[in-house]
């Protein structure tokens, strides 16, 4: 027998394998699942950023609600319980929260005194101007020839709009502002101080607000057009049916049946903030933190910021251009407060590498 002639390898045989014979293939995993571990390690190391804005009249519990959501009141020095002045001067406060090794850089922008004046014409201009200023800062950083490895993200990812518990319907001021605001940022409306309404009044008020939103084509978050699959559609449909959430904020603990609970103490009992039978604060918390935080950031980057970016770059054809880059002048105050047409651009590019 010729020593050079060998029997063909089973892997190279041209004979078709029988159904009972497994195909010849490399055994063992490649290790692709380790990518998840790499992403988790990097995320734990770098942390996350989340920027939230609260809008509403004075006395609706905006600061208290933020404290209840993120439990940041313990980090505030004593003696700062003075209520903010009733003016329309926006101010931002940044907290770094760490929980089980996960760091969150939280920036809260408050709008004290919004809608409190006798003449509220164009009272939304400072708020819209601030939101667009953050888009402009991010855009100017992106246009630099030598960019930072990580561009600081100060863009507002979510705006919680506090509706006064009137029990009737949205005011003309609310409708006008929400129409402009929803074109610029993710808006989550809530019924503030819901404990001042009975359960029946609260449900009737919610239905009237939902009707107002549909009548005036106000698309609050989560927008139906961004449901990516059937699971998203089912989850978001349940949330949309409960929006605006009827919430109560509290930053004090009370002893109820041997356990400490966050709540408001009244003459007839304690309103437990985290009890769904008392208010819908758990739904708001789950939406903002536990289930939709990353989605809020993605829509901000891929839709709202992208719309702003496209409009600003389209304006650049009137400006002298440098070789290889866009010479874009800073936006004027009028450009920052002018409403923009809402255009779906989600998926243009993904910015999932968040760090600070």
From TrEMBL:
The keyword Ligase does not apply. Residues 6-18 have a biased composition (Low complexity). GO terms for biological process: cell division. The keyword Transcription regulation does not apply. It is found in: Cytoplasm, Cytoskeleton. PROSITE patterns: G_SEPTIN. One of its GO terms (molecular function) is GTP binding. It comes from the Eukaryota. Residues 1-25 are annotated as: Disordered. Residues 46-315 form the Septin-type G domain. Gene3D superfamilies: P-loop containing nucleotide triphosphate hydrolases. Keywords: Cell cycle, Cell division, Cytoplasm, Cytoskeleton, GTP-binding, Nucleotide-binding. Transmembrane segments: none annotated. GO terms for cellular component: midbody; perinuclear region of cytoplasm; septin complex; sperm annulus; spindle. Belongs to the TRAFAC class TrmE-Era-EngA-EngB-Septin-like GTPase superfamily. Septin GTPase family. PANTHER family: SEPTIN. This is Septin 12.
